[in-house]
Design a protein that fits this description.
The structure is a single chain. This protein is mainly α and 71 residues long. The chain has helices at residues 6-9, 16-31, 45-55, 64-70. It is globular and about 45 Å long. It starts with 5 loop residues before the first helix and ends with a helix.
Amino acid sequence: MAYMPMEKLLRKDTSLFKLILTAAARANELAQGAQPLIQTRSKKVSTIALEEIVAGKVAYKETKKAQAKKS
């Protein structure tokens, strides 16, 4: 299993909840056949998703609908 420090996964503006949502959504895309955005030796979609987040290729983005609910 690949080790990724939490400091690299959780940036200043990211919560653990947002990290989990992002990783799960990206892992689901990879499982359905999406191509990885990085070069990796891993075969596990969950590990690839986390590696993409660390590399800055995938990030959480709020939709307008979610922002409207906050207000």
